[in-house]
Amino acid sequence: MKNEKVIAIMKARGIRNSIIKSKMLEVFLEESTPINANHLHQKISSEIQVDLASVYRNLHLFKEKGILREVLGGSNESYFELATGEFPLHPHFWCHQCKQVSCLSPLSLEETLWLSSLAKKQKVRSIDLTLKGVCERCLLELERGSSI
């Protein structure tokens, strides 16, 4: 089932199927939060031989074709997540402590339109919204006096 979905996603965007591309998209279907290229490379290189350059090249192909969206973390590190119809635009939270990116609730149409209206006479092509601070898990650890 997962493999059929992966093939359908690539076919709809005119991308030729390959083992590397399929494995990459399978990981994105399994993940619940955005991931960076290194994490993706580690996950798929345990199953197939792939270099980091190929991972980056395919990430940018998927982004260009609208399959993935890029999310910037705290140090402008790129994270990626699925951007197809069933994964609507939503803001993200980047934790300064654990350096993880997490997804927040999707924006309503009204909220998205309001954000777009701030640009006045400019043409908005995309909206990226990342809140930065300390996540709930890290706050609890800090309250307990532990170091993370």
TrEMBL record:
MF annotations from Gene Ontology: DNA-binding transcription factor activity; transcription cis-regulatory region binding; zinc ion binding
| InterPro entries xrefs | FUR (IPR002481), Fur_C (IPR043135), WH-like_DNA-bd_sf (IPR036388), WH_DNA-bd_sf (IPR036390)
Named cofactor requirement(s)? Mn(2+); Fe(2+); Zn(2+)
Tell me one GO biological process term.
negative regulation of DNA-templated transcription
What are the protein's UniProt keywords? Answer: DNA-binding, Iron, Metal-binding, Repressor, Transcription, Transcription regulation, Zinc
Q: Which SUPFAM superfamilies match?
A: Winged helix' DNA-binding domain
Q: Which residues bind Fe cation?
A: 110
Q: Which residues bind Zn(2+)?
A: 95, 98, 135, 138
Q: How is the cofactor bound?
A: Binds 1 Mn(2+) or Fe(2+) ion per subunit.
The entry's family comment says: Belongs to the Fur family.
Role, per record: Acts as a global negative controlling element, employing Fe(2+) as a cofactor to bind the operator of the repressed genes.
Q: What is this protein called?
A: Ferric uptake regulation protein
Gene for this chain: ZURR
